Amino acid sequence: MRITGGMVFGADQRFAERDVVIRDGVFAEEADRKAVPGGGQDAAEEVIDASECYVIPGLLDLHFHGALGMDVCDGTREAYQSIADYEARQGVTAVCPATLTLATDELAAVLRTGAEFARTQTGGADLVGFNMEGPFISHVKKGAQNESYIIPCDPAVVDQFIEASEGLLKIIGLAPEENPDFEEYIRAVKDKVIVSLAHTNADYATAMRAFRAGAGHAVHLYNAMRGLSHREPGMIGAVSDARHVYAEIICDGVHIHPAAVRAAFRMNGAERMVLISDSLRCAGMPDGEYILGGQIVRKEGKLCTLKEGGNIAGSVSNLMDCLRNTVQTMEIPLETAVACATINPARAIRVEDRYGSIEAGKKGNVVLLSRDESLAVRRVVKDGRVIA
Prior knowledge:
CATH class of the largest domain: Alpha Beta
Distance between the termini: 15 Å
CATH architecture of the largest domain: Alpha-Beta Barrel
Helix content: 25-40%
Radius of gyration: 21 Å
Strand order of the largest sheet: 12-14-15-16-17-18-19
Number of domains: 2
Number of helices: 10
């Protein structure tokens, strides 16, 4: 396959007009042409005219829960396949779904089903990992997570999850302030899995201790954490000072004010920001009531809240919607937004050797976006094949 005439998002995170060549499902060098008698281009090669389009890598969402009425924690192959198909159609060609706070045995079963699906899947977005928000989180900042299943951090439980996921577990959350031995725990597991600070009421000093011990990720910045104050900067200030930490951010237009989004990019640097959707099973579905980890949530337009208590409960937007919103509403440059939805998440979960940029040898996943203010998806290519 050869994609011509488009403005291609390069590894230098700039757009330039050039061809994109995909051979055997992976990107090839631009000059590569299939050998044919007499030289020249193979007449059978599929050519896509990308004039008036941006050509960007397939997106990678490393924190979302579900779509189309299904959640990965349903723990069924049907749910995984339906969600993977939906995400791929939106241009999200790799996923690292997030699990809810549930009983440990139930979480292990969800991971086992996901691992089996990843080994045998034949279509949809590639399942490249798992991001576990719980169960080692805060009772105070639980958000829409089910408090009944919160437990103290335990390296043995982490080992159980890693085994169940067949090594696909990439990130696991922690509220350090509720776990007195959190530094010892982090040191015990940090070489096996990325420790994130998630649903935490930690103050600045506690968060910095966790980051110095080896935690390297922050779950949905601003949300389900202590707010930023000039005397107690909390998690937000700690993330800014811990320069090795990747910070997730939900740019759906509901969770965070645009000015706060811009401030986060300035404080942390764009290279550490990761766009996520945090989408629930009600993404792509009509308004109404849905189940989230045993609790009822209500979807009204772009807002999803717990029926009891009214806490915001994730989003109803997919990552491509969030990318558009980041540019159109948050006024973040397109080049920055694309990087934060492609190469940054790939680096955050250490799969940048296969995903995140249009470079020779990586998976041949690209999205064609209209080169106008709408940034509409015109075509999705997955493994060198047009799927949408």
